[in-house]
Amino acid sequence: MEIPFIKMHGLGNNYIYLDLFQFDIQEELLPKLAQQVSNVNTGIGSDGLILIHPSKIADVGMRIFNKDGSEGMSCGNGLRCTAKYAYEYGIVDHKNFRIEAKAGVVEAEVSVNETNKVGDITINMGAPILNRTAIPMVGENDEIVINEPFKVQDVELNVTAVSMGNPHAVFFVERIEDAPLYEQGPVIEKDKRFPEGVNVEFVEVVSPNELNFRVWERGSGVTQACGTGACAAVVAATLNEHVRKNETITVHLQGGDLKIRWDQDGQVWMTGGAEIVATGSYHF
Ligand SMILES: N[C@@H](CCC[C@H](N)C(=O)O)C(=O)O
């Protein structure tokens, strides 16, 4: 089977995208396809697979499959790439439109240059979900989890838990270079206190408007960027009083910067770029 694909990335967080406005694919093939295309040696090489599809409730739909074939609820970088593709390839003909993800519908706004190419994209990622059981995280109460002691393999850490439609465990560190990304990331991802697994973020507070950030993504491992993770980091930093609500915070990810703002009405705004890398045909 020949499957037409587009490869795109947001700050190095790269996925193989299928434009299901052009063709359809059987549901049961998707987890295996995600695993195969993601493999850099025997496939194309990516952090996973994203479907851009018609939606009944929004202008365009997006579904994300991680590298291991599991399906995620949302993807910040994937939403920006979907927005760029939808505008540049004529799926939408206006600069403000709605994208459906499994976690819900978000609003996107693209900035466009004189040659009609999309530059920065802003997405209203909605309000974070903070109650423990909704993350979901196991524990004795349903309060917000802020800087709670969290022991992993005899190491004492403190976790702040945030859902941006998908679960994030945020840990503040003194120096981002010392973040135990490869040691603790895979262990925390599968820790039983997070029954659905978790995306793991280490964050250094650089200033009241700047964070350094590294991520171990659920289902994909270390990636160069995570949009929902950057939003979760800003929410966690606000809850811990490292930064203030309604300020625009620059998050330095491995692949570049995102601007994130948690506004007074509780909405989290994400602004950043997206790039189309290649188009081609995958032999499946
Ligand atoms: N890279 C993404 C998040 C992708 C899904 C995540 N790994 C999960 O399973 O929740 C982003 O940019 O937000």
Automatic annotation (TrEMBL):
Catalyses which reaction(s): (2S,6S)-2,6-diaminopimelate = meso-2,6-diaminopimelate
Subcellular location: Cytoplasm
GO biological process per UniProt: lysine biosynthetic process via diaminopimelate
Keyword Cell inner membrane: no
UniProt-listed InterPro entries: DAP_epimerase_AS, DAP_epimerase_DapF
One Pfam family, short name: DAP_epimerase
Marked site (Could be important to modulate the pK values of the two catalytic cysteine residues) residue numbers: 168, 217
Molecular function in Gene Ontology: diaminopimelate epimerase activity
Active site positions, chain numbering: 75, 75 (proton donor), 226 (proton acceptor)
Gene3D superfamilies recorded: Diaminopimelate Epimerase, Chain A, domain 1
Pathway: Amino-acid biosynthesis; L-lysine biosynthesis via DAP pathway; DL-2,6-diaminopimelate from LL-2,6-diaminopimelate: step 1/1
Enzyme class: isomerase
Keywords from the named record: Amino-acid biosynthesis, Cytoplasm, Isomerase, Lysine biosynthesis
Binding site residues for substrate: 13, 66, 76-77, 166, 199, 217-218, 227-228
A GO cellular-component term linked to this record: cytosol
Its EC number(s): 5.1.1.7
Subunit structure: Homodimer.
Family statement drawn from the similarity comment of this UniProt entry: Belongs to the diaminopimelate epimerase family.
Role description: Catalyzes the stereoinversion of LL-2,6-diaminopimelate (L,L-DAP) to meso-diaminopimelate (meso-DAP), a precursor of L-lysine and an essential component of the bacterial peptidoglycan.
Name of this chain's protein: Diaminopimelate epimerase
Organism: Ornithinibacillus caprae
